[in-house]
Design brief:
This protein is of the alpha/beta class and 140 residues long. It has one domain. The protein is 21% helix and 23% strand. It is built from 4 helices and 6 strands. Strands 2-1-6-5-4-3 form a 6-stranded mixed sheet. The longest helix is centred in the middle third of the chain and has 12 residues. It is globular, with a radius of gyration of 15 Å. The protein starts with a strand and ends with a helix.
Length: 140
């Protein structure tokens, strides 16, 4: 059973997967959990999803990161956004900065390492989904 890193009450935690059933776009209806590929084109109807899982086909495929930013910034999606598929602890930090609040890791993943890497810094120069202002704007 996969383990999850979840952002709950302002901190990241290791949780057991509840085995949510995600439906493909073809089978999905508003109010249900939706699973999409990294190449999916988001629409406003997705805002009605119980949660959205983005399935990464390869660890080196960054399109899912861009999709997360589109969902959070352009569409204003505020629900659970899950990274799943070929997700590795090396990219958990980037997943969190792009707006994922749940990260599904395989059983053999180093969860303690992933938990340390998901939020390793106290401040950032760049703006992101989780912090809308750059360091320069915050200083003014």
């Amino acid at each position: 059973m996969p383990k999850l890193l979840k952002h709950l009450d302002g901190e990241w935690r290791i949780c057991e997967d509840t085995q949510a059933t995600y439906l493909s776009l073809a089978d999905w209806h508003p109010g249900e959990a939706l699973e999409v590929g990294v190449d999916a084109e988001p629409t406003p109807t997705w805002l009605e999803a119980l949660s959205i899982a983005v399935n990464f086909p390869a660890m080196t495929d960054g399109r899912g990161l861009s999709l997360a930013v589109l969902l959070r910034k352009r569409l204003g999606y505020t629900g659970e956004l899950v990274a799943r598929g070929n997700v590795h602890e090396d990219i958990v930090h980037f997943l969190a900065r792009c707006g994922f609040n749940t990260i599904e890791l395989a059983n053999e993943s180093r969860l303690d390492t992933a938990l340390k890497w998901v939020d390793p810094h106290t401040g950032y120069y760049q703006a992101s989904v989780i912090s809308n202002e750059s360091a320069l704007k915050r200083a003014n």
